[in-house]
Amino acid sequence: xxxxxxxxxxxxxxxxxxxxxxxHLLASGHEVQVTDLYAQGWKASVDAGDFLGHDPRERLGxxxxxKRAYASNALTEDVVREQxxxxxxxxxxxxxxxxxxxxxxxxxxxxxxVYAYGFAxxxxxxxxxxxxxxxxxxxxAGKRAMLSVTAGGWADHYGPRGINxxxxxxxxxxxxxxxxxxxxxxxxxFVVYRSDGLNAERFAxxxxxxxxxxxxLWTQAPIPYRKQNAGDYEVPSMTLKPGLESVGARGFALHLxxxxxVAD
Length: 264
Known about the structure:
Helix content: 25-40%
Domain Flavodoxin-like fold: 2-212
Protein name: Ribosyldihydronicotinamide dehydrogenase (quinone)
Radius of gyration: 19 Å
Strand content: 5-15%
Number of domains: 1
Number of helices: 6
EC number: 1.10.5.1
Low-confidence stretches: none
Keywords: Oxidoreductase
Family: Belongs to the NAD(P)H dehydrogenase (quinone) family.
């Protein structure tokens, strides 16, 4: 299990939830590694220094440089270390506060630098009939992932008619684009609302719910995203074939395949 944690204050709610997860998983017999991005001073921005041997006189193409560096073992030591953690882990949890409707910049920087070409994207056959191994396939196929998020607003604010927009829509770019893209089975997120005013009683409830989620990491049904190469999308346009959407589905919901959900 790998927990990637992004908050500058160790005693924050995010920090406490990270500690709860780590302690419960260890007590349950799991091996756990934690990447504490702020504590280790993670470099968030991608630049030429990420690709060892890059000639500063040459134009930097991030994708092409990432591809060459990954293929020739020329990525920096901190990136390689995180990639090894991802290879080792059978599950990944990202623990972070929702800041301006997304993850903190330092966590986005972890994704930008660790998800190298050939490692998390650019995997598999790329042709007129296949757009690689992604969206349900790829490096992390068979592994699980989950977001653990703290949000300052009320749950209603993030509901289907809430002013902030649905939490499922807000987290779709991370769940579908960052986690499902390279192959993770993505579990529904764990979200603690009204995080700034959380008292001891509400924290105890959140802790209990989080421990239950940890116990179900390998048994809970993942979000039923459609697999890219399972026949639901037109090639090469990669648009959903007509008639496959659920009644009334629009936008992000088009990419949920409720046919695969088995009722209890």
